[in-house]
Amino acid sequence: MLSKRIIACLDVRDGSVVKGVNFEGLRHAGDPAELATRYNREGIDEVVILDITATIEKRKALADTIQAVAREIFLPLCVGGGIRGEEHAEAAIEAGADKVGINTAALAQPELITSLAKRYGSQAVIVAIDAKREAGRFKIYVRSGQQGTERDAVEWAQEAADRGAGEILLTSIDQDGTKTGFDCELTSAVSSAVPIPVIASGGAGTFDHFVDVFTTGQADAALAASIFHYSERAVADLKTHLRTHDIPVRIT
After folding, report:
1. Rounded distance, CA 11 to CA 14, Å?
2. Of these residues, 11, 51, 183, 220, which one is catalytic?
3. Distance (Å, rounded) from C-alpha 156 to C-alpha 163?
């Protein structure tokens, strides 16, 4: 079995890391480069930078922030937010990103997934899906969770995989920032439907939440923000806990 990955997410606005609940009520959580340095030292497997207002403000992700973080870490870096075309993906990768995450633009231009996969390889293309439970289904939201669509998360994940996406970054808006656990039903539904890795996001609060999402949720990776940013949980301790539950992880 491949090692499960623990990923730290840096939600960035105006050059600072912020965190909220259910995509709302954002508060300051630190400097991106300083946090990335600590995560690199503590043994995190990957870092994701999400420029959370880039799409709403119709601008590309902040190159200065990407460069500052990339200088501090020696592990995979994914950048999302404001990637609306090949030129934005190129700018992010030239600034130091190893992967790009696309969300709103992927739904609006599904062919972008394929063109980026052909240019950079599927491993560099992550399709982000923000989903919320509504009327017995998992409905997709775009524009940083502000705008609902009629698309179903499972069906869209399957299409994204078919079009060349290398991974799915799946966020439960219902669970985001609550620290009450990942949405394992949502994660399992998508993981079972696609042949590519699924990164679970939204709701991490305890070590056992990670155990649940790697077992019941069938996730390949789990992403968290709050519990790492505020030093509530140590990455090394989390990985030790996962190993005691026979979940393979990389320990440095």
Report:
1. 10
2. 11
3. 10
The catalytic position among 45, 130, 212, 220 is 130
Q: Where in the chain are the domains?
A: 5-244
If you search the block for the tokens 């190893």, which residue do you land on? 98
Is 11 annotated as catalytic? yes
Q: Please write the tens of the pLDDT for every residue from 169-220.
A: 999 999 988 899 999 999 999 999 999 999 999 999 999 999 999 999 999 9
64 is catalytic: no
Give pLDDT tens digits for 87-142.
999 999 999 999 999 999 999 999 999 999 999 999 999 999 999 999 889 999 98
Q: Rg for the chain (alpha carbons), in Å?
A: 16
Per DSSP (E only), the strands in the chain are 5-13, 16-21, 24-30, 46-51, 77-80, 99-102, 125-134, 137-142, 147-152, 167-172, 198-201, 221-224
Q: Does domain 5-244 have CATH number 3.30.470.20?
A: no
